């Protein structure tokens, strides 16, 4: 087979194609390669297979939907499943976040939220509010809007920022918060940097503040205790929208349907994707408050928001999401993290603090990062553990100096035992 035609995303293409790793099947916590080797997945694919791999019930729902209604556009037409799904989701959402706009990915959900924010302010006669505040080390997808506001420099260095953006400092504080379990104790004062940016730019120019409740791709950075609430209060004071990017944290990842519920801080909008269909088919969703929806919808006659996607609320994706919701609710998976497995995961990850060169371990819910000291003599240790892990039947995410973990919600104690054993085995090879 010639691998050259496929330009792979976020991949060193030349290196991968010299030694490809190709999966053939998956089930539960494991992938199986074409060679028949099993791989324990401690990443939920890309943070998304919350229900584990290939749940039969979801596949069956998708198949039945495809037989009945393969496609219908959401532009001036509709189908019952999209409205039923939207109602189910908004009933679970916190506060008055009772409207949902369907997209096909987290990246699209973020860009949708940015557009809705600008449309909202324009409808209120404040079209000058078109500057966004995000955060250093933030990841908000790879569409031009999300790329522009994101704070991971490597993801923006080949592209110009298409829009007015400024950044809050990240909240990572090794000196004071190393080896924190749960929310770090120090750092709430970092939220006050928002006041400095408001003074610099003027509150009448700022449309929204966009943050991940727990930063994901930037290194799993749980917010300091009180930090998100402080942002909420500052935004309220200045008429600035607060948007949570919950593409990673929603659907049980941190112990509730959303991180906003877990942390008791309600944004004006939040984005989601990944766990919405547990990775079975692309789908995202942007939730917004009743005030935002009514303000935009009542501002125009005819089309109120000139935005949308060909595959918004695709019938097969709606069927997958609805089946996933059934499983989440019937098996109480949104809260499973807080009923034991979260503490087991925390203990297992922190048990690795004695590995060579570890400088920090941090976690919240089923998210964690093990950070190593920089390696001056070669590949970062996180990258090395990722590569050696693949050879040993373990999938973790290597992010420079860190190993990032986000296992499926269905994980059990035996999977944690296997994970710890394999990481220690890999470490022995690296540091022998």
* Number of separate domains: 2
The shape, in one word, is globular
Number of strands: 15
End-to-end CA span: 37 Å
Provide the gyration radius in Å: 21 Å
Query: What integer is the average pLDDT?
Result: 97
Which sheet architecture does the biggest sheet show? 7 strands, mixed
Q: What structural category characterises the helix and strand content?
A: alpha/beta
Number of helices: 15
- What fraction of residues sit in β-strands? 15-25%
- As for the CATH topology of the largest domain, it is Aspartate Aminotransferase, domain 2
- Helical residue percent band: 25-40%
What is the level-2 CATH architecture name of the largest domain? 3-Layer(aba) Sandwich
Cofactor: pyridoxal 5'-phosphate
GO molecular function: adenosylmethionine-8-amino-7-oxononanoate transaminase activity; pyridoxal phosphate binding
Keywords: Aminotransferase, Pyridoxal phosphate, Transferase
Pfam family, one: Aminotran_3
List the helices and strands and how they pair.
Elements: H1 13-18, E1 23-27, E2 30-33, E3 38-41, H2 44-47, H3 56-68, H4 80-92, E4 99-103, H5 106-123, E5 131-135, H6 144-149, E6 164-168, H7 174-177, H8 193-201, E7 206-211, H9 227-238, E8 241-245, H10 259-263, E9 269-272, E10 284-288, H11 290-297, H12 315-330, H13 341-350, E11 358-364, E12 367-372, H14 381-391, E13 394-395, E14 397-399, E15 402-405, H15 413-430
Parallel strand pairs: 3-13, 5-6, 5-7, 7-8, 8-9
Antiparallel strand pairs: 1-2, 2-3, 4-10, 9-10, 11-12, 12-15, 14-15
């Amino acid at each position: 087979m010639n691998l050259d035609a496929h330009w792979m995303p976020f991949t060193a293409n030349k290196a991968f194609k010299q030694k490809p790793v190709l999966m053939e099947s998956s089930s539960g916590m494991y992938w199986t390669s074409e060679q028949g080797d099993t791989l324990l997945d401690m990443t939920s694919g890309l943070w998304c297979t919350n229900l584990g791999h290939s749940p039969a019930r979801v596949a069956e729902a998708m198949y039945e939907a495809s037989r009945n209604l393969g496609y219908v556009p959401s532009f001036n037409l509709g189908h019952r499943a999209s409205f039923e799904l939207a109602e189910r989701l908004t009933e679970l959402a916190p506060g008055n976040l009772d409207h949902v706009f369907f997209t096909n990915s987290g990246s699209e959900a973020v860009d949708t939220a940015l557009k809705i924010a600008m449309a909202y302010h324009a409808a209120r006669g404040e079209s000058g509010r078109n500057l966004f505040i995000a955060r250093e080390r933030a990841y908000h997808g790879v569409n031009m809007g999300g790329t522009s506001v994101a704070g991971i420099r490597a993801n923006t260095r080949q592209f110009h920022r298409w829009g007015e953006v400024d950044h809050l400092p990240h909240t990572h504080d090794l000196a004071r918060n190393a080896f924190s379990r749960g929310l770090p104790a120090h750092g709430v004062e970092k939220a006050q940097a928002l006041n400095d940016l408001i003074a610099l730019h003027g509150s009448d120019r700022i449309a929204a503040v966009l943050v991940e409740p727990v930063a994901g791709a930037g290194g799993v950075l749980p917010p300091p205790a009180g930090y998100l609430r402080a942002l909420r209060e500052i935004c309220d004071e200045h008429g600035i929208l607060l948007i949570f990017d919950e593409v990673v944290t929603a659907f049980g990842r941190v112990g509730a349907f959303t991180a906003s519920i877990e942390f008791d801080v309600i944004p004006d909008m939040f984005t989601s994707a990944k766990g919405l269909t547990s990775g079975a088919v692309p789908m995202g969703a942007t939730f917004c408050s009743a005030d935002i929806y009514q303000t935009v919808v009542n501002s125009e006659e005819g089309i109120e928001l000139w935005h949308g996607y060909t595959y918004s609320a695709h019938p097969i994706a709606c069927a997958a999401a609805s089946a996933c919701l059934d499983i989440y609710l019937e098996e109480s998976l949104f809260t499973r993290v807080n009923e034991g497995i979260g503490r087991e995961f925390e203990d297992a990850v922190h048990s690795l603090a004695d590995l060579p060169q570890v400088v920090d371990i941090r976690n919240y819910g089923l998210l964690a990062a093990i950070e190593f000291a920089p390696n001056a003599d070669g590949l970062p240790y996180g990258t090395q553990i990722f590569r050696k892990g693949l050879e040993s039947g373990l999938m973790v995410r290597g992010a420079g100096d860190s190993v990032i973990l986000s296992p499926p919600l269905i994980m059990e104690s035996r999977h944690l035992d296997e994970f710890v054993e394999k990481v220690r085995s890999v470490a022995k090879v690296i540091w022998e």
